Amino acid sequence: MYWEKDIETIERKKLDELQLTRLKNTLAKAGKSFYYGKKFKEQKIDAGAVKSLRDIQKIPFTTKDDLRENWPYGLVASHKDDLVRMHSSSGTTGRATVIFHTADDIAVWTNLVARCMYMAGMRKSDVFQNMMTYGLFTGGLGFHYGAEKIGALVIPAGAGNSKRQIQLMMDFQTTVVHVIPSYALHLSTVFSELHIDPRRDTKVRIAFVGAEPHTEKMRKKIEDIYGYKAFNSYGLSEMNGPGVAFECPEQQGMHIWEDSFLAEIIDPQTFEPVADGAEGELVLTTLQRDGMPVIRYRTKDLTRIIPGRCSCGRTHRRIERIKGRTDDMLIIKGVNIFPMQIEKKLMEIPGVGTNFLIVLSRDEFNDSMTVKVEVNKEYFSGELKKMEMLRKKIVEELKSEILITPKIDLVEPDSIPKGEGKAVRVIDNRKD
Q1: What is the mean pLDDT of the chain?
Q2: What pTM does this model have?
Q3: What is the set of domains in the chain, with CATH numbers?
């Protein structure tokens, strides 16, 4: 049940003490980097003056812009000769961020991912198929090394090539997969085209899903299609990648590994801490990284600390699935909208397919939203009345959720382009 019982079930008081010790060490290490050394000196921050975990609030936040502006080595706290690996974010907006690791950092990261996978039920006897991109992206290698740490047979399939993925699953009797949720739904259509029933014809019993925010409805839809148990994972490249937080078998939130990360939830407007149970932005500090410590990193991810102790016996606090990102918020006619609100409603409606796309436009000063929704093939049989009823149903459901009336375009299955990475959910054609 436990990969490391002593640390996973550690008493809360001892965990707090461990965090404080590691926080002090982290601050001392960070001060050796150009960025933090300069920042601490300018703001007269004494790492040795930290006496409690609350004292971290005296230290300024670190943002993605800070990492970009100090490209490439400005946050490195170790000698360059001690660095053995670098990873990078996707860099979809502006310059990518880069993270460096020592050999010890890689070992810690590997163990954290193994802890996650073992907690979810993966064992040495499993065959693990990794359907994530390898390379600068952390997701592929992170889970790869975690699986090898457990001792499972690893199939480094990489992303895309759906027919090959299915063939590998069947030929090698894959039991555990790592997959992006949107790709899992896409892959189901390929199974159907090949007249293969994934519930009957494969041995997969566990899926690790992550890399993009998704709703509980999407998770349930994936589980219904495949018949396996899907576990939510959370990570980001600035904090290693995967292995930051993970679901246990209770699936009542994701345990954040507090021996390696100090978590805060703040109000993204006031930057003040919020109480457990209140939604806000997740802020993280590394506690076990030598090469490039990162302090009070604003993730932009919206979540909350789930109050109370998990019935699984683990004492590390839990965070709720990521609702979205503060910078993913859309403002349409003065209304704040998150793409996941739309996904949640769409996944509840029978007949809706596996993909959708939000297109924003502006005519003079009026903003409008069009949601392109893939629907099941049966709706393109020529019964216009049936399609119109579905369209009206979608309009009504979305209006009740987001408080504005979107235009709905019903499109055929697989007509919305899919990439091998995270799903593109929004195209904003508005001009400032």
Answers
A1: 91
A2: 0.84
A3: 1-326 (3.40.50.12780), 329-428 (3.30.300.30)
